[in-house]
Amino acid sequence: MELVYEGKAKTVYKTREGLLMVFKDEVTAGDGARRDKAPGKGALAAETSALLFQYLQGRGVTTHYLRFVPPNAILVKPAQVPPLEVIVRFKAYGSYLKRMPKAKPLAPFAKPIVEFHYKDDSLHDPLILEDDVVEAGLLTAGELAAVKDMALRAASALRELYASVDCDFVDVKFEFGRANGELVLVDEVSGDTFRLLCGGEHFDKEYYRKTGDAAGLVGRYAKLLNLTKLAISRQKV
């Protein structure tokens, strides 16, 4: 296999069938400023992502996902991915509270808020305007509208999924790319990319951000995987 890319959470290899995304047993926070070993995390995040990509594809969201490769990888379609993160927020939390201090933590929004961020750790992924996205050539105006629609549909589907197991899906970070001329949801969908509160407890990376407890995070990711399986099974009934 040919190494294509190595990031904070995954290593990507080129194969004859597509790209193999191998999830690491590591956890980071603060744009990589804090890093710890987290044995077992990679397999849990990979399987959760696989289940959620399949679920979203079943709800009409096009993704780069092809199949799960146990224990800790997924096979995906190659895609051209602009340095852009799309965040969908259902409640006020995280960086939103820093820029909007009058908002109360976890206050629900009248409708979901969609944000665009330029992906660059050295700049701390700054918030940018929709016009910035187009002017910088990251997306065309048509692609921007399509990505916004896909992000809202995917986020709403995930919020509905976890509501079925009495959990509160707070927000999610997506990435999109172009595969064979088609816009697709890429990267991963796991506790590394969304916030989920169950009984007031974080089953996502926010737990590590707050505590620095990597082992505790792995335990919560195991619970997240089981909850995801339960929620998806209820959708099929």
Descriptive notes:
There is one protein chain. The protein is of the alpha+beta class and 237 residues long. α1 (41-58) runs parallel beside α6. The strands form 3 sheets. Strands 8, 9, 10, 11, 12, 13 and 14 form a 7-stranded antiparallel β-sheet that branches. Strands 1-2-3-7-6 form a 5-stranded antiparallel β-sheet, covered by helices on one side. A two-stranded antiparallel ribbon has the order 4-5. The protein has 6 helices and 14 strands. The protein is 34% helix and 33% strand. The N and C termini lie far apart (40 Å). The mean pLDDT is 96.
Topology (elements, then pairings):
Blueprint: E1 2-6, E2 10-14, E3 19-23, E4 26-29, E5 34-37, H1 41-58, E6 65-69, E7 73-76, E8 84-91, H2 95-99, E9 108-118, E10 127-128, H3 130-135, H4 141-163, E11 167-179, E12 182-186, E13 194-198, E14 201-202, H5 206-211, H6 214-236
Antiparallel strand pairs: 1-2, 2-3, 3-7, 4-5, 6-7, 8-9, 8-11, 9-10, 11-12, 11-13, 13-14
Helix pairs in contact: 1-6
Beta-strand share of residues:
25-35%
What is the total tally of β strands? 14
Largest sheet: 7 strands, antiparallel
Number of helices: 6
Helix and strand pattern: EEEEEHEEEHEEHHEEEEHH
Low-confidence stretches: none
User: How confident is the prediction overall: mean pLDDT?
Assistant: 96
Task: Quote the distance from N terminus to C terminus.
Answer: 40 Å
Radius of gyration: 17 Å
Shape: globular
The percentage helix is 25-40%
Structural class by SSE content = alpha+beta
